[in-house]
Amino acid sequence: MGLYKVDKCIFTGLSVKNMDDGDFRDAIEYWLDLGTHKIFFRLTHEALNWDRENEFFQRNEHIFKGLILNNDWFEDQKVYITIEKLKELLPQKSYPKTPQEKADSLFQYYLSLQTEDGQLVELDQKKFQEWTWQELYFKSLSEIIYYSKYLKKEKLISANFSPIEYSDDILFDFQVTVEGLNYGIKLQSEGEKSNLCFIAMAFKPETSNIRNAIKEALTETGFKPILIDEQNIDSDRTINDEIIASLKKCRFCVADFSYHSKGVYFESGFALGQGKKVIYTCLDSEFTDAHFDIKPLQHIIYKTAEQLRADLKNKIEAWIK
User: Fold this and answer.
1) What is the pLDDT of residue 4?
2) Residues 202-214: tens digit of each pLDDT
3) Is residue 289 within 8 Å of 258, Cβ to Cβ?
């Protein structure tokens, strides 16, 4: 059988370049050129029917599109993409999952468009109507307008909406309010925009070089490391309270599974459940004993602390910055 050919990307609907002679005969193989980056896709031929027959794909299509447009797709571009692979991918990725997260993400985007606080910002309508809603993981242009009206109702922005023929209102321009500025300061001090990283690891004498390597990689990339045994905990708080509070404030988590501390499994799982990115690391000599739940996840496997520092720094600069 010959390769299946498509004119449009299965996920984005954008034009693609098919592979003339791919490695898999019974597959769809193509390149998608997004200008800033190119992505290679290898899919089962069943993908031709996903948009009509697969409920999981239909429900999450806007998320896949957002991941692709944000260059946060499969790290191994030669992976053979199936529905099962897509189900494994989503828990590893960070994107707005709740209405509050979607509203905050949109507000932070509007904050980023300012060149000075309080200015009136006119939107690039072509970009806003064709790309912005997709890059921010919204399902449609109507949905991003709906959330923009919510931000206005909450007095985080003032905004002018102009009706256009045969469509919903379009946001023409906006201005971040004083209330919005205060909310933006709060958002930037914790969570997605913070410069904090929670380190989950075993606290043993033999891990001191690992600890130092992780802290150095974070410092060199502009992040502040948070280790629970270095925090001053108020007398009315438990260690668990402090762990959860710290994880909520952090932008991402580095989880080192060397020596297999049960706390690392809990803390990295909690961070993932909060929608935060988690970078997994482990000593090469320890990885064979890792629990089967985390073995399929991509790890930085290292033999020396210096290798960990260098590889972790590269990972942060590519995935977090």
Assistant:
1) 75
2) 988 889 999 999 9
3) no
Q: Which CATH superfamily is domain 194-319 in?
A: Toll/interleukin-1 receptor homology (TIR) domain (3.40.50.10140)
Tokens of 35: 């200008």
Taking alpha carbons only, the member of 97, 106, 96 closest to residue 157 is 106
Q: Alpha helix locations (H) across the chain?
A: 50-53, 55-69, 83-89, 99-112, 125-127, 133-135, 141-153, 178-188, 208-220, 239-249, 262-273, 305-319
Rounded to 10 degrees, the C-alpha dihedral 190/193/194/196 comes to: 110
| pLDDT tens-digit readout, 51-103 | 999 999 999 999 999 999 998 899 887 889 999 999 999 887 878 888 988 99
Partners of 149 in the beta sheet? none
Q: Quote the CA–CA distance of 104 and 308 in Å, as a whole number.
A: 33
pLDDT over threshold 60, residue 167: no
Q: Is the pTM of this model over 0.70?
A: no
pLDDT class for 1, splitting at 50, 70, 90?
very low
Q: Rounded to the nearest 5°, which phi and psi values hold at 30? A: -155, 165
Domain 99-188 fold is: Arc Repressor Mutant, subunit A (1.10.10)
Domain boundaries, given as residue ranges, for the chain: 17-92, 99-188, 194-319
